[in-house]
């Protein structure tokens, strides 16, 4: 197993980056792009996942590490919940929700595994 030198080496961060890119792409078109509140909130939640993994990794001490990784995991849950709002408003399709939801779940699993 390779040694993790930086947060970019963490698979959970890489998956969070993928989720963030997909979320930005999805929320950049149609009515979703015009719902500034939801669009910005779901983007902030996605960015929060990446940011908190990076910050937790660069903190000194295991308590801080777990704190920031727990926030990242919670932000992934927030993205999941907001996807349903976007679906209910018909901003995105069921297929898009499934794809993004799967990315969010994968990200949460990777975060949990890294925390263990």
Structure, described:
This protein is mainly alpha-helical and 116 residues long. Helices cover 80% and strands 0% of the residues. The chain has 5 helices and no strands. The model has no long low-confidence stretch (mean pLDDT 95).
Q: Count of DSSP E strands?
A: 0
Helix content: over 70%
**What's the SSE pattern?**
HHHHH
Averaging pLDDT over every residue, what do you get? 95
Report the radius of gyration as a whole number of Å. Answer: 14 Å
Intertermini distance: 16 Å
| Main sheet specs | none
| Low-confidence spans | none
Number of helices: 5
Characteristic terms for this protein:
116 residues; mainly alpha; 80% helix
Topology:
Elements: H1 11-26, H2 30-34, H3 36-58, H4 62-88, H5 94-115
Quickly describe the structure.
It contains five helices and no strands.
């Amino acid at each position: 197993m390779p040694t993790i030198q930086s947060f970019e080496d963490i698979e959970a961060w890489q998956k969070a980056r993928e989720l963030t890119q997909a979320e930005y792409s999805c929320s950049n078109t149609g009515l979703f792009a015009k719902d500034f509140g939801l669009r910005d909130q779901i983007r902030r939640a996605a960015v929060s996942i990446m940011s908190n993994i990076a910050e937790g990794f660069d903190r000194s001490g295991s308590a801080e590490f777990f704190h920031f990784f727990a926030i990242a995991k919670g932000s992934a849950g927030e993205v999941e919940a907001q996807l349903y709002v976007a679906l209910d408003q018909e901003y995105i399709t069921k297929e898009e929700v499934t794809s993004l939801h799967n990315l969010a779940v994968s990200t949460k699993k990777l975060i949990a595994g890294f925390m263990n």
